[in-house]
């Protein structure tokens, strides 16, 4: 948590917080994010929030909550990659022809469309 807060403030203000400020901010963020954002995904969440925001104000913890909800929504609805399950190419992206030549598999063609 400390590390994420430190980087959030550094990115926003161009300067690092003092030790005490950092601890206080970090404690406040922990209070808000605890039970919502899993700790191991906190960094990912921070990066998503920073990349998606338009505001020039320093990032606040509730924006991380929003980013997390968006990430979850995307993960819930995004189809899992099926490429490795392809019966034609078995995940290589190349279809074997009878004359031992290969051509790009249909599964890859539909992905780029
Ligand atoms: Zn395929």
List keywords for this structure.
two-stranded antiparallel ribbon; mainly alpha; 2 domains; binds zinc ion; elongated; 2 strands; 55% helix; single chain; 5 helices; 113 residues
Structure description:
The protein has 113 residues and is mainly alpha-helical. Helices cover 55% and strands 5% of the residues. The protein has helices at residues 2-13, 19-33, 42-52, 61-77, 106-112; strands at residues 94-96, 102-104. A two-stranded antiparallel sheet has the order 1-2. Helix 3 (42-52) crosses helix 4 (61-77). It starts with a helix and ends with a helix. Bound molecules: zinc ion. Zinc ion is lined by residues 86, 88-89, 105, 107.
What are the bound molecules? zinc ion
- Rg (CA only): 22 Å
Low-confidence stretches: none
Strand order of the largest sheet: 1-2
Give the overall shape: elongated
Write down the overall mean pLDDT: 84
Say how many strands there are. 2
Distance between the termini: 41 Å
**How many helical elements?**
5
Structural class, by secondary structure, is mainly alpha
Helical content (DSSP H or I, runs of 4+): 40-55%
Total domain units = 2
Tell me the fraction of residues in β-strands, as a range. 5-15%
Oligomer: single chain
Largest sheet: 2 strands, antiparallel
């Amino acid at each position: 948590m400390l590390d994420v807060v430190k980087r959030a403030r550094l990115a926003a203000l161009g300067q690092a917080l003092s030790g005490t400020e950092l601890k206080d901010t970090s404690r406040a963020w922990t209070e808000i994010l605890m039970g919502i954002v899993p700790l191991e995904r906190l960094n990912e969440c921070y990066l998503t929030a920073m990349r998606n925001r338009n505001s020039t104000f320093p990032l606040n913890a509730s924006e991380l909550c929003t980013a997390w909800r968006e990430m979850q929504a995307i993960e819930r609805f995004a189809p899992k990659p099926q490429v490795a399950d392809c019966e034609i190419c078995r995940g290589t992206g190349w279809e074997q022809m009878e004359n031992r030549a290969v051509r790009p598999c249909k599964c890859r063609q539909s992905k780029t469309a």
